[in-house]
Design goal:
Blueprint: H1 3-15, H2 18-25, H3 29-43, E1 48-51, E2 54-57, H4 59-86, E3 91-98, H5 105-116, E4 120-127, H6 129-137, E5 143-147, E6 157-172, E7 192-196, H7 202-214, E8 221-225, H8 228-236, E9 242-245, E10 256-272, H9 278-291
Parallel strand pairs: 3-4, 3-5, 7-8
Antiparallel strand pairs: 1-2, 5-10, 6-9, 6-10
Length: 301
């Protein structure tokens, strides 16, 4: 028994007569009849009952029909996977995101990519900046999305802007200025500003200082928090304030007041110049197309 016989068998079962089966297979009617008869002799079972009106599959043929359909489906799926592997479009892409960032663009990007490459899997992790970059450099992550202006100067890395996020000063509704109609950033210069510990996420403090300096002041005091959750609790309870961007996940926004700033920060996709995962590069180019149809991530430096 060979694959041609299986194809003829499946088509004959579908069409119900030799003439139509032959027409759809672009062969002669005797060719189909010959192959099906040879298949029956080899298997030792009658697959079809013949009559002048056509053919009817036998109970034994029904059993084999289910098996051959399953084989055909498995073969088609395996062939697609094999072709994807040959094209470098298969496997798993490991993505890291800055802790606390709500990357609303990412789910749609993943879904639209998988429409073209159904065999792709993703892992998504959220990490503080230092750990994020460590995992990228160790090849534990293929791609990271984080806020950065200074990443451009790091060696052996490629980058691509994804989106801009507006910034705001965040204060608790318990704060003594929370009820004031208009609050200027300069009025908050003497407040305690919370940031993530620079040893864990140095980029956070850089952003804070840059924002404040653009308004003509440097925070009188900065307090380091061990993680994002601790920082948000401290601000919520009125012990200080902080600077956030509109992408940040805030678990209890009704507890805060947002003071908009005329500043924004850039989120960028960053990956190693020598990327060992060709599938990840395909996804990076997909991101480039979504953010700018004329862009090509592979030539960004």
């Amino acid at each position: 028994m060979n694959s041609i016989q299986i194809e003829y068998f499946l088509e004959l079962a579908k069409q119900g007569n030799f003439t139509d089966a032959a027409k759809h297979m672009f062969v002669s009617q005797p060719a189909v009849s010959k192959q099906v008869s040879a298949m029956e002799r080899e298997l030792g079972v009658i697959l079809f009952e013949r009559s002048n009106r056509g053919v009817k599959i036998t109970p034994a043929g029904e059993v084999l029909l289910k098996m051959f359909k399953r084989i055909q489906s498995d073969f088609d799926r395996s062939l697609e996977e094999a072709r994807n592997i040959c094209n470098g479009i298969s496997g798993t892409i490991h993505i890291g995101c800055l802790d606390g960032a709500d990357l609303k663009f990412l789910p749609n990007a993943l879904k639209s990519f998988q429409k073209f490459y159904s065999n792709i899997n993703f892992t998504i992790g959220s990490f503080p900046f230092t750990e994020l970059m460590l995992r990228l450099n160790n090849s534990d992550l293929d791609l990271v999305v984080t806020i950065t202006d200074n990443m451009i100067n790091l060696k052996n890395l490629m980058h691509m802007p994804i989106f801009e996020a507006n910034c705001a000063i965040l204060i608790s509704k318990r704060h003594n200025l929370a009820e004031k109609q208009n609050i200027s950033p300069q009025e908050l210069a003497n407040e305690d500003f919370y940031v993530i510990d620079p040893e864990i996420s140095p980029i956070e403090k850089e952003v804070l200082l840059s924002m404040c300096q653009s308004y003509g002041f440097t925070p009188k005091n900065t307090i380091h928090s061990p993680n994002l959750h601790s920082m948000m609790l401290s601000v919520e309870y009125g012990y200080g304030i902080t600077v956030v961007d509109e992408s940040m996940r805030i678990y209890n926004p009704s507890a805060f007041r947002f003071i908009p700033l005329n500043q924004n920060i850039s989120f960028q996709a960053i990956w190693r110049e020598q990327l060992n995962n060709p599938t990840a590069l395909s996804f990076i180019n997909h991101l480039a197309t979504l953010s700018n149809p004329k862009a090509s991530a592979s030539v960004k430096t």
